Amino acid sequence: MTTQSNSPAHTSEPVVRLENATRIYNPGENEVRAIDGVTLDVARGDFMALVGPSGSGKSTVLHSLGCLDRPNSGRVFVEGQDTTTLNGDALAQVRNLRIGFIFQSFNLIPVFSAYENIEFSLQILGTVSPAESRDRVNEILAILGLEKQKDRRPNQLSGGQQQRVAIGRALVKRPAIILADEPTANLDRRTSEDIISLMRRMNEEKHATFVFSTHDEHLMHHARRVVRLVDGKIVSDERKVA
Ligand code: ADP
Ligand code: MG
User: Is 133 in the pocket of ligand 1 (CB under 6 A)?
Assistant: First the structure.
């Protein structure tokens, strides 16, 4: 098996790039450099794990890559576009169109069904017709094995099913990149493995680009690239050759 199929476009332009990004909390005497001069290129088709001790800056890197948070200095490029000078609305537009997020605590809308949670992600875009939206949501539900659960609300779903809905919500937009912050931290071992294989399948079959943070050794082993952070700095960046 080769990794070639993971980068269909074979473009050299990174999907997302952090360039010398520094994020400082509590500027002044008690300042914390959550990330400190981080430069990171995420290539199209990457399946990347961000690892490192608690507090090493993993979430801050993900939030910066996803334009949820801005570094104090340095730059963030999304598909070649420098986001540094964008105002809040324009940045939200980049997030909505190009970035999918998966959180540790799922963050689904409690009054929406599984179907509606996924559909909502397309409605926000405002560019997908109702017919296409229906097709795309149903396709994703089938891929996720959630057809029978589509009318259930989050509290009627198991943790693993909720996380699959969250993956569906991220994927249905066909974003440039999917960012996942410890996506299996609240799941048992078997469910975590299901979620990991599902993400990996989406990476291989749909060429979805993933960056996820994890403490989970198992998840780390499935990564094709492992970036390690210590004290807000990248200390290693290893690609696996299949
Ligand atoms: P990780 O995800 O690896 O645990 P984080 O990116 O959450 O690391 O945090 C990196 C550092 O930044 C930690 O020292 C953390 O305490 C600090 N930090 C993160 N968010 C905030 C915040 N909102 N206010 C103050 N400090 C923060
Ligand atoms: Mg974190």
Answer: no
Average pLDDT for 84-110: 93
Whose atoms come closest to the Cα of 104: which ligand?
2
Residue 220, classified by CB atoms within 10 Å of its CB into exposed (0-12), middle (13-18) or buried (19+), is: middle
Q: How far is CA 119 from CA 68, 108, 113, 129, 187, in A?
A: 22, 12, 10, 11, 24
CA distance from start to end of the chain: 6
| In the chain, domain spans | 2-240
Taking the CA of residue 23 as reference, the ligand 1 atom at the shortest distance is 12
CATH superfamily of 2-240: P-loop containing nucleotide triphosphate hydrolases (3.40.50.300)
Could you tell me which of 237, 236, 227, 231 has the C-alpha nearest to residue 50?
227
Q: Please tell me the number of the ligand nearest to residue 229's CA.
A: 1
* 225-241: pLDDT as tens digits: 999 999 999 999 999 87
Give the closest ligand to the alpha carbon of residue 64. 1
- What are the two backbone dihedrals, phi and then psi, of residue 5, each rounded to the nearest 5 degrees? -65, -15
The number of the ligand 1 atom at minimal distance from the alpha carbon of 213 is 2
Measuring from atom 21 of ligand 1, which residue has the nearest CA? Answer: 25
Greater confidence (59 vs 2) lies with 59
User: Is residue 60 lining ligand 1, measured as CB closer than 6 Å?
Assistant: yes
For 25-61, write each residue's pLDDT tens digit.
998 889 999 999 999 999 999 999 999 999 999 999 9
